[in-house]
Amino acid sequence: MNQNKNGTKDNKKYILMSICSVLVFLFIWELVTDVLGIFKSTMLPSPVKVFGTFIDKFTNTKPDGATIQVHTLASLKVALSGYLIGVGIGVPLGIAMAWFRKVDCFVTPLFDLLRPVPGIAWLPVLIVFFGIGLLSKAMVIFLSAFIACVINSYSGIKNTRMVHLWVGQTFGATRSQLLFKVAIPTALPMIFTGLKVALGASWNALIAAELLASTKGLGFMINQARGIYRPDIILVGMIAVGITGAILGYLIELLQKLVMKRGWRQ
Amino acid sequence: MSGMIQCEHIVKKFPGVNGDYEVIKDISIEAKKNEILVLFGSGQCGKTTLLKVIAGLEPVTSGKIFINGKEKTAPGPECGLVYQTTVLFPWLTTMGNVEYGPKMRGMSKKERREKAQHYIDLVGLRGFEKSFPNQLSGGMRQRVGIARVYCNEPDVLLMDEPFGHLDAQTRYLMQEELERIWQTEKRTIVFVTNNIEEALYLADRVLVMSNCPAVIKKEFKVDLPRPRDYTSPEFLRLRQEITSIVDPAEL
Predict the structure, then answer these.
(1) Which of A133, A260, B95, B184 has a CA positioned 20 to 30 A from the CA of residue B219?
(2) A34 and A56, same structural domain?
(3) d(CA A65, CA A11)
């Protein structure tokens, strides 16, 4: 396992370099704000200030009416509900479209028409119907997640190799066994790609929706801060968006590792 | 029904731009129980199509196929296929692949595990039960492929150039292995190859096929004692004889 040894060595180097890059970035940021004063703090606050505001926002509900945890949870609630519905409908639909010819003929043309419309473009229509509450935002997220799930599950199933289906058939597998024991395992890596893309799309769509129309959530907090010239809160909001998104991405990677064992990885 | 496989006047045409394209032209073959029948032919002469037709994966244009006395119209567990390239399921371990057939047919876990273990031992892969296909060498993967088919207990094993993608050394080894496995547990095997030595090493009978449309040119009975010696005079004589009837223009 020579390779492995080299692997950990490379890994250490990689981590060290990443830390360096972040430190250099923070250093330059501090330099152009507090130290040299090139940017005024009303325009670009220093990292020290942003960090202070970040800690402060855990307990301080001003100026936007809630702490950062409350905003994050509000955003997560909307994002995850829309996401889960999108996955719940999108993945089975994508599989059905790829597996059953009739479904393919019936649904695909309609789907191809809707596909290029970004989820967020639905927002004005949805606000007219449902107002600016949870429902319209959840719908936007649903649409964003749904499309990514359908596309990836569809291509995943279409990747099924003919010979694998033959093997299944000569082993006496029924049509549904071919779907569940040959096609879906083949498609699983692609389905997971879909889940990941959909999660990213959901989170992006949510923040965009919140910037446009909302009463709480991280996007709302950012938008409020913009209105009252608090760039430090804007940056805190962006950092919270980034961290939460990264954690969600990490969780889904973890799920994938649990579900997909070694044989899937090449 | 005298044989395990009985094909009567099989014709297979594929629809083409300039009318139908005839791939198999009136082939009748018969294989006895526990016989190794080798279909030998060069290049694209419709051997694979013939196997697929026998397996029920392609419908015949005309003619009839009987497996163990029953007419074959759809794919099913009475014919097991071993393919040229590895077509193991990459998401399953050796054990998972070998027990796949019995699992599809609803055999209990304990029973099918026992059975799968028996065939994994038979092909000499004990200790590799938990390995995934991408962790095995080409030869080992084909062993899994053979165990997987054996484990499903088909009446007939159809092998489509199973060793075609292996390097020469492994190929010899696998021919010996297949013979050993077959000697231990005899089955009816139809083996397709374009390698003349492989054909003579394994076959009870060799059917030499001509190019598209495929017809059977000649039949050779090989009753040399097993295991065969690639360099014995009889072996070389047969080899010479078969080579002489293969049209060089078809190669």
Answers:
(1) B184
(2) no
(3) 43
One domain for residues A32 and A50: no
Of residues B195, B101, B208, B197, the one with CA closest to residue B146: B101
Q: Are residues A15 and A144 in the same domain?
A: no
ipTM of the complex: 0.81
The pairing of strands B79-82 and B36-40 is: unpaired
For B90, the closest of A177, A181, A263 (CB atoms) is A263
**Same domain for A9 and A65:** no
Say whether residue A169 is in contact with chain B using an 8 A CB cutoff. Answer: yes
**Is the bond leading into B213 cis (omega within 30 degrees of zero)?**
yes
A263 → closest Cβ in B77, B87, B93:
B93
Residues 6+ apart with CB under 8 A from B248: none
Nearest CA in chain B to A162: B87
The verdict on a CB contact (< 8 Å) between B104 and A172 is yes
- Same-domain status, A57 and A85: yes
Same domain, A81 and A208: yes
> In sequence order, which ranges of chain A are alpha helices (DSSP H)?
2-30, 47-56, 68-99, 101-114, 123-130, 134-158, 162-170, 175-178, 184-212, 218-227, 231-259
> Nearest CA to B152 among B105, B188, B185?
B105
Domain around A8: 1-39
| Structural domains of chain B sorted by starting position, each given as residue range(s) with its CATH number in brackets | 1-78+158-166+187-251 (3.40.50.300)
Task: State the smallest CA–CA distance between residue A264 and chain B in angstroms.
Answer: 5
Q: Do A172 and B80 touch (CB under 8 A)?
A: no
The pLDDT profile of chain A, 266 residues, written as one tens digit per residue, is 444 556 677 888 899 999 999 999 999 999 998 888 888 878 888 898 899 999 998 888 878 888 999 999 999 998 999 999 999 999 999 999 999 999 999 999 999 998 888 888 888 898 899 887 788 888 999 999 999 999 999 999 999 988 899 888 888 888 999 999 999 999 999 999 999 999 999 988 888 888 887 788 899 999 899 888 888 999 999 999 999 999 999 999 999 888 887 666 54
Tokens of A136: 């319209």
Asked if A34 and A51 sit in the same domain, the reply is: no
Our CA-based measurement puts residue A89 at a distance from the nearest CA of chain B, in whole angstroms, of 25
Give the gap in angstroms from C-alpha B234 to the nearest C-alpha of chain A: 38
> What is the C-alpha to C-alpha distance for residues A54 and A68, in angstroms, rounded to an integer?
8
How many residues are listed for chain A in this entry? 266
Q: Taken in order B90, B96, B102, B106, is the CA torsion positive or negative?
A: negative
Chain-chain contact of A161 with B87 (C-beta, under 8 angstroms):
yes
| Single-letter code of the amino acid located at A2 | N
- Examine the domain organization and report whether A172 and A237 are in the same domain: yes
What are φ and ψ of residue B207, in 5° steps?
A: -105, 120
* pLDDT tens-digit map of B39-80: 988 767 788 888 888 988 888 888 888 888 888 888 888 888
The minimal CB distance from A181 to the residues B83, B87, B104 is found for B104
